[in-house]
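Troubleshooting log. The previous run stalled partway through. Resubmitting the same two chains, unchanged.
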Amino acid sequence: MGLNELSISKAARGLRKKEFSVRELVSDCLQEIREKDDNLHSFLEVFADTEDEAKRSDEMLQANPRQPILFGIPLALKDNILLEGKRCTAGSKILENYTAAYDATVVKNLKRQGALFLGKTNLDEFALGSSTENSAFGPTRNPHDPERVPGGTSGGSAAAVAANLALGALGSDTGGSIRQPAAFCGVVGFKPTYGRVSRHGLIATASSLDQIGTLAKTVEDAEIIFAAISGKDEFDATSTDPGKSDFLEKSDFRNVRLGVPKEYFGKGLDPRVEKIIQSAIASFKKAGAKIKEITLPHSDYALAVYYLINPSEVSANLARFDGIRYGKSEEGKTLLETYTRTRAQGFGAEVKRRILLGTYALSAGYYDAYYLKAQKVRRLIREDFAHAFKEVDVIIGPTAPTPAFRLGEKSDDPLEMYLADIYTVALNLAGLPGISLPAGSVEENAKLLPVGLQLIGSWFEDEKLLAIAKEVEKIIA
Amino acid sequence: MGKINKEVDHIAGLARLALGEEEKKKLGTELSAILSFVEKLKEVNTDKTLPLTGGTDLENEMREDKQLDKDLEGKQKNIMEQVPERKGGWVKVKAIFE
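Second attempt completed without errors. Output:
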């Protein structure tokens, strides 16, 4: 077995037992990337200097074996997270040659832990999409079936972890962009409570929805990375540390109350996915958890709310790409022409769609009917969850309504594509933490397509959610 | 539904996007479809509901107005190197007023 197939916790133990070196670990990952990634295209850039960094890590580990658990662990970064001195494209032509001038806070934190970065992974342009097909640099393929999408927008990160190219990865989640690709690729994907992880150095998509999170092979690994990257940051005024929370000391699954929303099992859910999720729920019941049917009455409106709020915030956040301070700049006779031509040439179709939709929803005469209305229904959606969490510890359901679809299958119809997010967007609207775990697979054309189970936790109960997820992982493994 | 088609020009202007004719037609159709989809929000009674204003309940997060970044070595050069049109430490822009 190549060292690249190890989990982070196993690799950390192996390094300390001197079973192998950081250099060998990194080398195995790079070798796998060389063999697989021409086909998968999960990386937009693989760094040339990681092996040298690994040599230095080995020297440091030799001199002082007491290093943090992430020391020497090779990770991948979604290409909307800034790593100083390296290109950061956000999957867009408009930033094709942009070099990051500073490190994102999460990157600073990981560097402090001694983690290593293998490269930047592919994403839908500006994290807008559900399949990584909107990348200006070509799609990523699903390691389980190369004719299918890996999901999006953190498709590159999810595929890299699933294909054992990296031991873990960072992604970002605005409407499901970590959880859905995790489900499609059969890995763990965790989105923290809004505010647990700093957004400083994350190229902004929708500022009230974005969170950086982790793609990993196990819940334990996802937790290890989360512990390293979370924390209140002076550079992000929306970041905060949780107050005291009571969470499972000893994970006693018999006391866990699991809520199953009746709205999540209706029209649109692939019956094969439903079967797997119901089977998982039956296992949890057998293991002693209390299963309770709950209702989230405004679930049906979550997509509509999301596809008004996201474009509105996107239209504001992407206004900065105007060819003046960074990025692509198209020649124009006037300043206005510089703006309009730069943006027309630099942005892809979905980006333009969202900007126009958002501009419309925020414009005079329409603001109340669209944006304001959406923010009101958003509050109702949040209240649905608050109500539910009075009765249950964690809410469970499918992460996505179907397994991975084929490349090109939904890319002609934007609305079709948006439906992939039906179970994930509500969490971002409410600011809740969520995790997707592999729950089984569906066979299609002799390929096994992963299916994800989503667990939703209450605000700032990330640690409790992860503890319960670890129990769940044992049961459905 | 045809409302937005006429308005695409206006919105594209606001969004500082130069669109071709074919593009405008296609986008007009797509946006009409999406707007029809979001119309369902009209079904929800929000008479007594205040809008949420962001992702967090935090308010007035203040800090002292002093430099936090300790390591600024070479950062200005990094930033200036990204500027498409520049002269020394200045960003060049076309005339704002005619």
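Takeaways: The beta strands of chain B are 86-87, 90-91. The mean pLDDT of chain B is 89.
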